[in-house]
Amino acid sequence: MLKTALVFVIGLLLGANLVYFFMAGRPQPATSTPSAEPVAAPAAKQPPGGAARPATKSSTPNRDASPTASARGGALLIPVQGIRAEQLSDTYGDARGSDRSHNAMDIMAPTGTPVLAVSDGRLAKIFDSKAGGLTLYQFDPSETYNYYYAHLDRYAEGLTEGQMLRRGQVIGYVGSTGNANPAAPHLHFAVYRLGPEKRWHEGAPINPYPLLRG
Length: 214
Ligand SMILES: [Zn+2]
What we know:
By secondary structure, the chain is of the alpha+beta class. It is built from 6 helices and 11 strands.
């Protein structure tokens, strides 16, 4: 079915090219014909909208060669089931207390909503902290970045430190453990660039918003 549709689209493109070719009055047939082929072929293989994205990605290859590059699809998965990109808000710079900023993202969702791993990678630490409540730290596959999930109501069953998580795997459930307001359950999600020693509790925060929003 899909294949038939693709063939049809390619046929249309080639047909349009031919019509253009004849209407334009033979603009150097030797160069125009071969150049039409490579353009039509990759465009037909990509999903709708796929063609526009690599262009913006490749314009910032150095700044972006990081959590984004290591995750399939060029961005991190939104870690709360059922939440769409448009529902996210950038709370990274919000004040928390008088002398520090949030340096993370809060994703509001009802208690018990599944929390999903944003990428593949090792489960570095399961930790119950005063502020974060039930938390989980996951390294990205290159072990350059650390993904932090906090205020979980509970963990998924059978999780063990050191195990490899898969992108999209349920790792826990949204809650309000730690210092979260019980009336406003949410996932507190942060991204840290790991230091040279790759310790789960050390790292420089990075705003997760653009990584999730794309
Ligand atoms: Zn938070």
